[in-house]
Amino acid sequence: MRFLLLNGPNLNLLGSREPELYGSETLELIENDLIAKAKSEGVELECFQSNSEGELVNCIHEASKNNVQGILINAGAYTHTSIALRDALLAVAIPYVELHLSNTLARESFRHKSYLSDKAIAIISGFGAYSYELSFLGLLNHLRSHK
Ligand code: DQA
Q1: Are 63 and 87 in contact (CB under 8 A)?
Q2: Buried b (16+ CB within 10 A) or exposed e, 41-65
Q3: Is 61 a catalytic residue?
Q4: 21, 68, 98, 107 — which has fewest CB within 10 A?
């Protein structure tokens, strides 16, 4: 199986960005841990981060051509604003899990709106870096039992 992990704007700053909210692990560490975890489950995990909405959209289009079967997405602030990302995910029709380090529903009201949630398989929010592993395991379990 092949999965894609997508991270949106400002997540390249993990480790130094508001550590009280987002923890001290860098994105590189999170990605490497998850690549290893995925490998041990027989899954090839591709990782991509961008601060640009259009690049994220292009990457979702590419995922379809590259036979990606599942997407893990932390769209950062684009979660709350981007119809384009929603449309891209729906266009390729690849099952996805929406994930967040922080519990967005416990934060400012503008973070309560998500353009991705209602079409996601599931939402994992609030477990810090562990949200990534939980999302991966959930997606894997879902795809294995929905073959
Ligand atoms: C975030 C939550 C978003 O509201 C915020 O804009 C982020 C990070 C999270 O992982 O908790 O950039 O997606």
Answers
A1: no
A2: eebebbbbbbeebeebbebbeebee
A3: no
A4: 21
Tokens of 111: 């973070």
Six-digit token string for 15: 């480790």
Token pair for 115? 């353009």
**Distance between CA 135 and CA 73 in Å, rounded?**
9
**Angle, alpha carbons 134-92-145 (nearest 5°):** 45
Q: E strands, 8-147, where? A: 44-49, 70-74, 96-100, 122-125
Give nearest CA residue, ligand 1 atom 9.
100
100 is catalytic: yes
- Whole-structure pTM value: 0.97
